[in-house]
Amino acid sequence: MREWNILVTAHWGLERKALRFLAQYGEFKSSGFKDVLRGHVEDVGLFLGKLELVRQEGSRGIDSLSQVVPLEQTFHFELLDFIEKLKEAVLPYAEKIEDKKFYVRVKRRGHKGEISSQEIEKEVAGFIIEKLEKAGKQAQVSFGEPDVIIVVETIANWAGVTLITRDMKEKYPLVKVK
């Protein structure tokens, strides 16, 4: 599956149960990393809404899901071009972050010792702040009470990127940033 717009982390050892549960909503497959699934749904907002209803009802199957991350875009990368492609992917978020508190979270799967999540988080946050300052605008990095979070999820040589708002996290408790 090349096109994916959802990343799901199942609770430990519940990957198969999560796959069975999610099959009714779209196409989901194992990522090759334990308990990490990638999927494609036609309407992300509708999918998140349905999951929230099921969560509130306490229906079976939903308990297998630990985290759901809706992704706005995905791209393939090589180590040498990862940072540049990532900066290009997050650039449209700069105007959405203007005058807000934010941080960048990178969850790396694969490339152990080759990609440092913390270094990338700092570099991308600095890139966003620099772009805003050049335009005479500002934003502030804040881990305490951020208004928005830029989330980057990598699975081997694929990356997914999204912007998670405080409102989205409140509306959909399964949308978590760890």
How would you explain this protein's 3D organization?
- The structure is a single chain.
- This protein folds into two domains: 6-70; 76-162, THUMP fold, CATH 3.30.2300.10.
- Helix 3 (82-90) packs across helix 5.
- It is built from six helices and nine strands; from the N terminus they run βαββαββααβαβββα.
- The chain has a five-stranded mixed beta sheet with strand order 5-9-8-6-7. Strands 2-3-1-4 form a four-stranded antiparallel beta sheet, covered by helices on one side.
- The chain has 178 residues and is of the alpha+beta class.
- It starts with 5 loop residues before the first strand and ends in a 7-residue tail after the last helix.
- The chain is globular, with a radius of gyration of 16 Å.
- It has helices at 15-22, 44-57, 82-90, 94-97, 117-134, 166-171, and strands at residues 6-10, 27-30, 36-40, 65-70, 73-76, 101-109, 140-141, 148-155, 158-165.
- The mean pLDDT is 95.
- A hairpin with a 2-residue loop joins strand 8 (148-155) and strand 9.
- The longest helix is centred in the C-terminal third of the chain and has 18 residues, at 117-134.
- It is 33% helix and 29% strand.
Key terms:
178 residues, alpha+beta, THUMP fold, 2 domains, 9 strands, globular
Give the helices and strands, then pairings.
Layout: E1 6-10, H1 15-22, E2 27-30, E3 36-40, H2 44-57, E4 65-70, E5 73-76, H3 82-90, H4 94-97, E6 101-109, H5 117-134, E7 140-141, E8 148-155, E9 158-165, H6 166-171
Parallel strand pairs: 6-7, 6-8
Antiparallel strand pairs: 1-3, 1-4, 2-3, 5-9, 8-9
Helix pairs in contact: 3-5
